[in-house]
């Protein structure tokens, strides 16, 4: 294609309408079937999380009411009825021992899981963007200091530090906020490294030199020339980080240092389910399955976003195309 | 080369030193009433005062930090109330709970975590690289699609979920395996291996997914490069191209990632250890966190950080050695 | 009548919806040399790849028949095709660095290819590798065979690739732009090597190139391609000397000639050498890196540029010409030396102090892809200097941009369009419009036409000349192509390893070069007249021996 473009010097109108970036992105994302399905699932989950009270109300339940009549206290609190007490009233059954409605707890749990992960991702991107840009645009000294700080950030083992931090913060501090802060604050080094490397590469391109020659200031160049081109790698990276953050939150809650009861969270349900899997397997399978589906959809979506934002990266992996183009475009090499 | 090693070493020391400052500030300064934490919630004011005295918590913060650092570099003495105990370098303090020296504690846990990591590591490299090579070889066919989805599923499954499922299937339902228990290798190698089998498999299943992806994408990237076209144009067959040229391109990234994972796993196998009840560093840390045993927490984070920094340096070095094009600087 | 070595009939290649080659037919007799010449997109490389069946499994659709050394490439089985590749017909690719595996030694790679086609022991294969490396003129071949490609220079790598091609004694060598990535002196060496090998072994050569001069020096017959079709074919002297087709004529007219004096330029030219220079550099130096890895890119360069004149700077890769150009417009700070502009010492100015003059020194860049921000409309890019100058009236900005775009020969209404919608030459025009928007006194053009096809090249050069006459600005024209520099410059400076080895009026330097390096450089440029090729080869070997 682009080879054909190069041929047309003066004359003949080139093809391709000026499709806006966002529009093109959607078209490319939609063209990937797996990613489109994943996007739909993610959207559904987000809606369910946002509308948790509504959904619970629709089911006629809430996440905190005990139903002692629905569990067999003689058998140690096993839900009465098949499949963990699934019924018209309790769509996912009830929690062992307490008899709380599982559907309500799961949708409220989605709120916590997704909310924490979104906040953590936003934080990671924000810190990474600021640190990375400042390192790339600042002088040698600033770059040195920020790069060392990034090194230190890399050396912080996420799970371990998160565990340790959660131990000393007073329980009065709201846990979901704390977890988002901890994940975001410990794990931004990747973003800042990507941003720094990209910004440095962009800075050496001729169009940035041209902007300097035009007499534009440093910040104006950062905003107009660099940021738009940084969006693609940063969005891609964020899309890949998001599912990781969900897993980390679930893991912390699973270890009993994350979200504290009575706030429902998937990871914490799994801890409790550990002891019930024989008598009430649905109690284990439902949060485990949801966690799996969520992370899988987000990962597939992340891959899709990557492909949609950088089709070259994807086509690079296809073999045998673009040869002629590349060979002939680098016609002459200069110093 | 020597210059690279020295610079790298300097950087590592700087990062670790910064880590001690941060950890000290966050865990000993920020909480405020360290004496109360050390003594426990039910301590009387008199007891708290005694602990303050013993731990010299009245000293200025920088003096306390200095002593902490001194302990790591040269060792230090602790008053135990009844006498003085010497803690040899690298001294990370003494547990509030068990009065055991943290370094001793870590050293007793290290072989346990080591057993877990080394076995899992061998498995996941085999499985991951094998899967990656197979899907690159069968690219564009059904095998690759199936493997790609399996790999994605592996990436999407948290280790504690797969671990739970494996326990339920093999230990409870089928009863093929005993519940995982840790038996030291020196005691009974066979029991050691059987006890660790499920943890190894769970970790390996999850970790290998990453390696499968990396191997596959590195190989495909190499296959798209010009030099592969050269060898095709000279009549070299596809098997030889895969074996000699494509796989060679995956070596450096896989080795580098292995070093990183191997290092961070020493402190980070927290989930696996907790789930399977393996008494390693990770489980000890979770326990220490729950009872707010500050010296143990700080000590373990520091040791983990040390492994991560070490792994980073080793990864860079191995990458450069494997790639040969990279100039060490 | 024997069967020809290569027989191509009605070859058509489609990449998706793009037809790269359209009904191409030609033959090549054993031992003969055919040059396939064309601009980018003419389908010449795709045709060359088809000779070895390299389009198989790539999604390209190939129809027609291709017979090479008795093999029907289109219908041959995998094994038969592999037996052809490398053994009967071998390919030499353009970029010698990426065409070799970075992980293995050069000797091992040649040995691998040899063992595919000959049942030889490892040891014998390695010995063969050393033999062919020695044959292509790699000094100390036994030792160098154990080096990896990145330890070789560009010319050495291309020699190694040719050695690989020779390893199995093929009857045909297909060389796809074999010298395009190389400096002109190295290019001459490689072409001489190919010529010599052909004479010695009697193998056929199919040389694909965009450079008519390269073909003129190396082949017997030439085939001119355009848009996937053969335009003209015949003996090289005939086609280049008396082209029958209009396209061939146009192509030849666009090729800058080193032996042709600059056409007399009408209109006022600055010319007054006694006037104070616009820009003066004195002993300019620039170093990169620190400590043991310090490199001096520009090493004490002094030059002047007057208003209305063009100073050409020629040099091969690594000569420091780009670094020098960037220092002249203050994109790079000199390590030492003085830079005077309009009577002021600007070399030591801070960015802020320099701001009043900032827009008076502009640059046109080499790479038409990298010099425009792909995410901003071209109008916005051109408007940059206007806005930075404080203009805020949108209509006035739009009007001025339209005027500038039309001035450089583009449709002024395409303000909102994005760079990818323009061709390479058009993008270069946009770059010129952006430089003009700043109302500069001096423009440094850094290889402004090296990424363009010759016909486009000629148009852009003509535009630059016109603008200079109209506006009386000073131009610094940096290029590696000696012929292009001769066409545009009043004075010329020859750079080598960060220094200017010779400087003077353009006809003097080209007519009677004083410095041995300048002589070597000039002798290396391929001439369009094939009759002179032999004589020039002789001159080169004399110069090399000297």
TrEMBL record, chain A:
<dbReference type="InterPro" id="IPR035906">
    <property type="entry name" value="MetI-like_sf"/>
</dbReference>
<keyword id="KW-0812">Transmembrane</keyword>
<dbReference type="InterPro" id="IPR025966">
    <property type="entry name" value="OppC_N"/>
</dbReference>
<protein>
    <submittedName>
        <fullName>ABC transporter permease</fullName>
    </submittedName>
</protein>
<feature type="transmembrane region" description="Helical">
    <location>
        <begin position="176"/>
        <end position="195"/>
    </location>
</feature>
<dbReference type="Pfam" id="PF00528">
    <property type="entry name" value="BPD_transp_1"/>
</dbReference>
<feature type="transmembrane region" description="Helical">
    <location>
        <begin position="112"/>
        <end position="137"/>
    </location>
</feature>
<keyword id="KW-1003">Cell membrane</keyword>
<comment type="similarity">
    <text>Belongs to the binding-protein-dependent transport system permease family.</text>
</comment>
<feature type="transmembrane region" description="Helical">
    <location>
        <begin position="149"/>
        <end position="170"/>
    </location>
</feature>
<keyword id="KW-1133">Transmembrane helix</keyword>
<dbReference type="Pfam" id="PF12911">
    <property type="entry name" value="OppC_N"/>
</dbReference>
<dbReference type="InterPro" id="IPR050366">
    <property type="entry name" value="BP-dependent_transpt_permease"/>
</dbReference>
<keyword id="KW-0813">Transport</keyword>
<feature type="domain" description="ABC transmembrane type-1">
    <location>
        <begin position="110"/>
        <end position="302"/>
    </location>
</feature>
<feature type="transmembrane region" description="Helical">
    <location>
        <begin position="226"/>
        <end position="246"/>
    </location>
</feature>
<feature type="transmembrane region" description="Helical">
    <location>
        <begin position="283"/>
        <end position="302"/>
    </location>
</feature>
<keyword id="KW-0472">Membrane</keyword>
<feature type="transmembrane region" description="Helical">
    <location>
        <begin position="34"/>
        <end position="59"/>
    </location>
</feature>
<dbReference type="GO" id="GO:0005886">
    <property type="term" value="C:plasma membrane"/>
</dbReference>
<dbReference type="GO" id="GO:0055085">
    <property type="term" value="P:transmembrane transport"/>
</dbReference>
<dbReference type="InterPro" id="IPR000515">
    <property type="entry name" value="MetI-like"/>
</dbReference>
TrEMBL record, chain B:
<feature type="transmembrane region" description="Helical">
    <location>
        <begin position="149"/>
        <end position="177"/>
    </location>
</feature>
<keyword id="KW-1003">Cell membrane</keyword>
<protein>
    <submittedName>
        <fullName>ABC transporter permease</fullName>
    </submittedName>
</protein>
<dbReference type="InterPro" id="IPR000515">
    <property type="entry name" value="MetI-like"/>
</dbReference>
<dbReference type="GO" id="GO:0005886">
    <property type="term" value="C:plasma membrane"/>
</dbReference>
<feature type="transmembrane region" description="Helical">
    <location>
        <begin position="296"/>
        <end position="322"/>
    </location>
</feature>
<dbReference type="Pfam" id="PF00528">
    <property type="entry name" value="BPD_transp_1"/>
</dbReference>
<feature type="transmembrane region" description="Helical">
    <location>
        <begin position="250"/>
        <end position="276"/>
    </location>
</feature>
<keyword id="KW-0812">Transmembrane</keyword>
<feature type="domain" description="ABC transmembrane type-1">
    <location>
        <begin position="110"/>
        <end position="319"/>
    </location>
</feature>
<comment type="similarity">
    <text>Belongs to the binding-protein-dependent transport system permease family.</text>
</comment>
<feature type="transmembrane region" description="Helical">
    <location>
        <begin position="192"/>
        <end position="209"/>
    </location>
</feature>
<dbReference type="InterPro" id="IPR035906">
    <property type="entry name" value="MetI-like_sf"/>
</dbReference>
<keyword id="KW-0813">Transport</keyword>
<feature type="transmembrane region" description="Helical">
    <location>
        <begin position="116"/>
        <end position="137"/>
    </location>
</feature>
<keyword id="KW-1133">Transmembrane helix</keyword>
<dbReference type="InterPro" id="IPR045621">
    <property type="entry name" value="BPD_transp_1_N"/>
</dbReference>
<feature type="transmembrane region" description="Helical">
    <location>
        <begin position="12"/>
        <end position="30"/>
    </location>
</feature>
<dbReference type="Pfam" id="PF19300">
    <property type="entry name" value="BPD_transp_1_N"/>
</dbReference>
<keyword id="KW-0472">Membrane</keyword>
<dbReference type="GO" id="GO:0055085">
    <property type="term" value="P:transmembrane transport"/>
</dbReference>
């Amino acid at each position: 294609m682009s080879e054909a473009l190069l041929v047309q010097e003066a004359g003949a109108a080139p093809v391709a309408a000026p499709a806006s970036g966002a529009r093109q992105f959607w078209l490319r994302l939609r063209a990937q079937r797996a990613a489109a399905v994943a996007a739909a699932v993610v959207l559904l989950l987000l809606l369910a999380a946002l509308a948790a009270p509504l959904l619970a109300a629709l089911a006629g339940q809430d996440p905190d009411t005990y139903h002692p009549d629905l569990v067999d206290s003689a058998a140690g609190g096993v839900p009465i009825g098949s499949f963990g007490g699934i019924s018209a009233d309790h769509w996912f059954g009830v929690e062992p021992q307490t008899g709380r409605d599982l559907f309500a707890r799961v949708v409220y749990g989605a709120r916590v899981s997704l909310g924490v992960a979104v906040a953590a991702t936003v934080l990671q991107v924000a810190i990474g963007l600021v640190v990375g840009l400042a390192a790339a645009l600042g002088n040698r000294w600033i770059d040195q200091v920020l790069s060392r700080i990034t090194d230190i950030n890399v050396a912080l083992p996420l799970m371990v530090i998160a565990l340790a931090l959660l131990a000393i913060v007073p329980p009065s501090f709201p846990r979901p906020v704390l977890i988002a802060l901890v994940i975001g604050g410990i794990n931004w080094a990747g973003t800042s490294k990507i941003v720094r490397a990209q910004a440095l590469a962009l800075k050496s391109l001729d169009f940035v030199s041209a902007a300097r020659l035009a007499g534009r200031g440093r910040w104006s160049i950062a905003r107009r020339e660099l940021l738009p081109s940084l969006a693609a790698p940063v969005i891609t990276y964020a899309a890949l980080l998001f599912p990781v953050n969900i897993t980390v939150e679930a893991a912390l809650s699973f270890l009993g240092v994350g979200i504290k009861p009575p706030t429902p969270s998937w990871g914490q349900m799994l801890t409790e389910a550990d002891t019930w899997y024989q008598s009430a397997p649905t109690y284990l399978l439902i949060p485990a399955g949801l966690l799996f589906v969520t992370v899988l959809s987000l990962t597939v979506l992340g891959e899709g976003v990557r492909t949609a934002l950088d089709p070259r990266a994807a086509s690079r992996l296809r073999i045998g195309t673009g040869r002629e183009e590349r060979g002939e475009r680098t016609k002459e090499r200069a110093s | 080369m020597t210059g690279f090693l020295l610079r790298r070493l300097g950087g590592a020391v700087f990062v670790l030193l910064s880590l001690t400052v941060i950890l000290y500030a966050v865990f000993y300064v920020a909480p405020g009433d360290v004496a109360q934490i050390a003594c426990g919630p039910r301590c009387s004011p008199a007891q708290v005062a005694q602990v303050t005295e013993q731990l010299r918590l009245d000293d200025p913060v920088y003096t306390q930090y200095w002593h902490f650092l001194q302990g790591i570099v040269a060792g230090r003495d602790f008053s135990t109330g009844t006498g003085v105990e010497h803690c040899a370098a690298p001294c990370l303090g003494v547990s509030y709970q068990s009065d055991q020296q943290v370094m001793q504690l870590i050293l007793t846990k290290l072989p346990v975590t080591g057993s877990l990591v080394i076995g899992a590591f061998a498995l996941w490299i085999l499985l991951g690289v094998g899967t990656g090579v197979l899907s690159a070889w069968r690219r564009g066919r059904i095998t690759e699609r199936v493997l790609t989805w399996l790999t994605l599923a592996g990436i999407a499954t948290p280790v504690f979920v797969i671990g739970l499922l494996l326990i339920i299937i093999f230990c409870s339902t089928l009863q093929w395996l005993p519940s995982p228990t840790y038996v030291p290798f020196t005691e009974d190698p066979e029991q050691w291996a059987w006890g660790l089998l499920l943890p190894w498999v769970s970790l390996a299943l999850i970790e290998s997914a990453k390696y499968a992806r990396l191997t596959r994408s590195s190989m495909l990237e190499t296959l798209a490069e010009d030099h592969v076209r050269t060898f095709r144009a000279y009549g070299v067959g596809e098997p030889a191209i895969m074996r000699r040229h494509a796989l060679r391109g995956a070596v450096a990234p896989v080795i580098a990632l292995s070093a990183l994972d191997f290092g961070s796993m020493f402190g980070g196998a927290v989930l696996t250890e907790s789930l399977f009840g393996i008494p390693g560093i990770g489980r000890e840390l979770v326990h220490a966190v729950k009872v707010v045993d500050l010296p143990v927490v700080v000590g373990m984070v520091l040791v983990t950080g040390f492994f991560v920094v070490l792994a980073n340096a080793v990864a860079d070095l191995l990458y450069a050695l494997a790639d040969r094009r990279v100039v060490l600087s | 009548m024997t069967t020809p070595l290569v027989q191509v009939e009605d070859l058509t290649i489609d990449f998706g919806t793009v037809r790269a080659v359209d009904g191409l037919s030609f033959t090549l007799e054993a031992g003969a040399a055919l040059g396939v010449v064309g601009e980018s997109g003419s389908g010449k490389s795709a045709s060359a790849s088809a000779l070895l069946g390299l389009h198989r499994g790539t999604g390209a659709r190939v129809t027609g028949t291709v017979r090479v050394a008795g093999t029907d490439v289109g219908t041959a089985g995998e094994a038969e095709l592999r037996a052809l590749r490398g053994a009967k017909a071998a390919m030499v690719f353009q970029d010698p660095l990426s065409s070799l595996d970075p992980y293995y030694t050069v000797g091992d790679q040649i040995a691998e290819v040899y063992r595919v086609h000959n049942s030889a022991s490892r040891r014998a294969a390695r010995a063969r590798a050393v033999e062919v490396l020695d044959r292509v003129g790699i000094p100390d071949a036994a030792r160098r065979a154990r080096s990896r490609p990145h330890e070789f220079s560009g010319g050495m790598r291309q020699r190694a690739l040719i050695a690989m091609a020779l390893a199995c004694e093929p009857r045909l060598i297909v060389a796809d732009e074999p010298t395009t990535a190389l400096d002109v002196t190295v290019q001459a060496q490689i072409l001489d090597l190919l010529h010599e090998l052909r004479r010695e072994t009697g193998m056929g050569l199919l040389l694909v190139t965009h450079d008519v001069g390269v073909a003129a020096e190396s082949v017997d017959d030439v085939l001119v391609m355009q848009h996937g079709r053969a335009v003209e074919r015949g003996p090289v002297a005939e086609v280049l000397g008396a082209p029958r087709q209009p396209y061939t004529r146009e192509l030849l007219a666009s090729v800058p000639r080193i032996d042709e004096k600059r056409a007399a330029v009408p209109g006022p030219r600055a010319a007054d050498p006694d006037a104070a220079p616009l820009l003066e550099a004195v002993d300019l130096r620039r170093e990169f890196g620190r400590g043991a890895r310090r490199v001096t890119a520009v090493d004490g360069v002094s030059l002047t540029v007057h208003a209305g004149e063009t100073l050409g700077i020629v040099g091969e890769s690594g000569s420091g010409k780009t670094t020098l150009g960037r220092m002249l417009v203050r994109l790079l700070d000199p390590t030492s030396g003085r830079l005077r502009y309009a009577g002021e010492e600007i070399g030591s100015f801070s960015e802020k102090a320099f701001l009043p003059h900032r827009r008076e020194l502009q640059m046109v860049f080499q790479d038409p892809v990298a010099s425009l921000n792909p995410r901003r409309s071209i109008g916005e890019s051109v408007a940059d200097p206007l806005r930075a100058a404080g203009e805020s009236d949108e209509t006035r900005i739009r009007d001025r941009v339209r005027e500038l775009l039309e001035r450089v020969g583009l449709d002024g209404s395409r303000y909102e369009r994005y760079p990818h919608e323009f061709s390479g030459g058009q993008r270069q025009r946009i770059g010129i419009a952006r430089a003009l928007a700043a109302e500069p006194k001096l423009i440094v053009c850094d290889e402004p036409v090296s990424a363009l096809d010759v016909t486009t090249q000629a148009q852009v050069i003509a535009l630059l000349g016109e603008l200079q006459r109209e506006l009386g600005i000073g131009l610094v024209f940096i290029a590696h192509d000696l012929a292009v520099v001769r066409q545009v410059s009043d004075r010329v400076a020859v750079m080598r390893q960060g220094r200017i080895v010779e400087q003077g009026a353009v006809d003097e330097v080209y007519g009677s070069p004083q410095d041995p390096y300048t002589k070597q450089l000039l002798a290396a440029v391929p001439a369009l007249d094939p009759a002179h090729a032999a004589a020039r080869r002789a001159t080169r070997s004399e110069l090399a021996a000297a």
